[in-house]
Amino acid sequence: MRFPRSWFADKHVVVLGLAKSGLAAAKLLRRLGAHVTVNDQKPEERIPAEEKRLLAEWGVQCVWGGHPPGLITPDVDLVVKNPGIPYAIAPVQDACRLGIPVVTEVELGWQWTSSPVIGITGSNGKTTTTTLIGEILRQAGQKVHVVGNIGQVMSEVAFDSRPDETLVVELSSFQLMGTVEFRPKVAVLTNVYPAHLDYHQTMDAYVAAKCKLFANQQATDAAVLNADQELSHRIAPQLPSRVYWFSLRGPVAAGIYVEEDQIYWQPQEGPRERLFSRADVAIKGEHNLANLLAAAAAALIYGIPSEAIRAVAQSFMGVEHRLEFVREVAGVAYYNDSKATNTTAAMTALRSFPEGVTWIAGGLDRGISFDDMIPTVRQHVRRVIAYGQTREQIVSMCRQAGVEQCFTVEDVEEAVRLAHRLTPAGEVVLLSPACASWDLYRSFEERGHIFKQAVHKL
Asked: Which fold has domain 324-456?
């Protein structure tokens, strides 16, 4: 049940963590008449001047430089938490002890949008799948906002969204943990692999966070699951919604699949429909074909004609930082896959190239093992250039895999220069770090941009 818009008038709300989502949440809450306090651990001098100006213009109280005792008092009605803030910090624990609801900005946006929602989550592929769904709906003439963990945050568009528009929402496990009543009309789970276990602690907790995507669905809603993952088959019987599948390996009971290089749609009732062939797909990589299948299934369930899906399949070339072709230099192709922040994503990227890859990898040390990469590295990597906190672990793993050319450098720029000297024409240089960026860079986007700038300087 959604709150009436009048509920927030004169309510006291604390927004924990500014960033993009906190700023949007504060603006929406003030438009709804709430009294808002924004709290961020950064000192005031590190808060951008434009953000401070906007908060002052909206009449928001600000508390900078940490989370002081007494921030959460019994007269607080709601806490809106930045997705990346742990639940273990004192203000969140205080709110829970006092029985004050703690939600993320996505739940806030859901409460106030009048638009139907398509939600997408997964360990890998969710940004590409989200982008593809948005492109397919636009191709069909729909009015679409692509929001969430990509582009605009949900509460930024929620207040003014209309019933004749669709919100296509990319959702992380962090965002989903803070949802209460969020209910997408179509919910897509691309895949689940071990990730963010430093935050969730256990794989079961991580899976449970992902599955909150389906928690409030009803029989009239739909779920899209990956038939090629065993975990999906354990999840499916528990879901309240209609289940559809996507598969690279052959026919499914209901959904979309590949058979003999043709892509088919099998409705829950009636004959199958051929949609297009594998040769029609513009984007590179088996993983991206899986993303396209998931997006196509969601669009077909939503009532989009297959012609729109076919047109996007033939033209869509990918998303920035996701196996993105940068340029060719002296016969060597350079690819930016900075979004590959775990070993599964990096292995998927490496498998997109038959052999002869100069692999640039490394980043934040989260204490994970890289040993699961050995078979893939053995088959696809000609040389490795590792940087960051994990460089020694990555080099050690590559040596176990039989890679003879192993190098360590300080950063991505140095890695690009060395790759340029070492890689012969006809081979590929791939940045696919298998690690988060935060040891050296503010985000995977910054890391990817620095890689591309270095390539363009060659």
From this structure: Protein-Tyrosine Phosphatase; Chain A (3.90.190)
Q: What is the 3-state secondary structure (H, E, C) of 363-397?
A: CCCCCCCCHHHHHHHHHHEEEEEEECCCHHHHHHH
Which residue, 137, 96, 141, 92, is CA-closest to 117? Answer: 137
Decide the pairing of beta strands 117-121 and 165-170. Answer: parallel
List pLDDT tens digits, range 43-84. 999 999 999 999 999 999 999 999 999 999 999 999 999 988
For the domain spanning 107-315, the CATH number is 3.40.1190.10
How does 153-167 read in b/e, with b if 16+ C-beta sit within 10 Å? Answer: bbbbbbbebeeebbb
Contacts of 27 (CB under 8 A, 6+ apart): 54, 58, 155, 156
Q: If we measure between CA atoms, which residue out of 26, 57, 28, 22 comes closest to residue 157?
A: 28
Which pTM was predicted?
0.81
Query: Superfamily assignment of 5-100 in CATH?
Result: NAD(P)-binding Rossmann-like Domain (3.40.50.720)
Q: Which helix (H) or strand (E) holds 343?
A: helix 343-350
pLDDT tens by residue, 110-146: 988 999 999 999 988 899 999 999 999 999 999 999 9
The whole-angstrom separation of Cα 256 and Cα 296 is: 8
